[in-house]
Amino acid sequence: MGAVLHLARKTICSELPALVMGIVNATPDSFWSESRKTAAAAVEQALYAVEQGASIIDIGGESSRPGARYISAEEELERVIPVIEQLRRRSDCVISVDTRKKAVMRAAYEAGADMLNDISALEDDAEIAAYAAQTDIAVILMHKRGVPAIMQKDGAYADAFGEVDAYLQSRAAYAVSCGVAEERIIVDPGIGFGKNLDANRVLIARCGKLCGGRYPVLMGLSRKTCIGDMTGKDVSQRLGGTLAANMLAVQNGASIIRVHDVGETIDMLKVLGSLRL
Questions:
Q1: What 3-state class would DSSP assign to 90?
Q2: What is the pLDDT of residues 119-166, one digit of tens each?
Q3: Do residues 100 and 125 make contact, with C-beta atoms less than 8 angstroms apart?
Q4: 36 Cβ neighbours under 8 A, 6+ residues apart
Q5: Which stretches does DSSP call E strand in 79-227?
Q6: Are strands 3-6 and 56-60 parallel, antiparallel or unpaired?
Q7: Residue 246 in 3-state DSSP?
Q8: pTM
Q9: Are 247 and 272 in contact (CB under 8 A)?
Q10: What are the residue numbers of the active site?
């Protein structure tokens, strides 16, 4: 069985068990230095990811790595809009904008973006939900505890799945109350965002059960600290661990996996799909 995602302006279909979202960081401070790109390099990276098989390109201009500080809308716009404009001129690929701000989302949509990936689950900007509803774009709602600057100071949970599930259900209900169509909602448990290794393990194992399976689940595991905790490897050496974690996440119900390494992830999904009976 393949993966399907219905967007306002297009439908994504794949014969693979999950859709692949390629990460494009138009930032100078993302946690993996190899992923930091200038505008021109970011466009080329995005085109290469599409060529390798990415179904979605996720463009972000504000780092959310542990310890990062938020930036102004003006600075974020300067980073991401040229990338979206240039990419849209050269490709009809699905573009997601990774932002918490309506001003950035609006400019991104007008430049050709198809999706909103909001790490604040529509909390940080009071106007962003209504604009998402107005444009009918797909919305990714992510769970996090605190802000990136301090979020890893307390990553323990009495019930990680229960707390994350309740939060995502409440944010999905909020989105619907603002006019976002249920079929446009995607949820993300926020691996590494204010969570320790035990919490991350639980969420990987039970990701498909979030919100009762009502919404597609996106998993962002690529080269994260939890992969390093499990393998003892530096970020530059976490590809193997990432592939293993993503394979299990897909087997456990993830519909979309957000990655730096598109080609290798596509190969993993091809093998997983071929071996499924």
A1: helix
A2: 999 999 999 999 999 999 999 999 998 665 554 666 689 999 999 999
A3: yes
A4: 25, 27, 28, 29, 30
A5: 94-98, 115-118, 138-142, 185-188, 218-219
A6: unpaired
A7: helix
A8: 0.92
A9: yes
A10: 224, 258
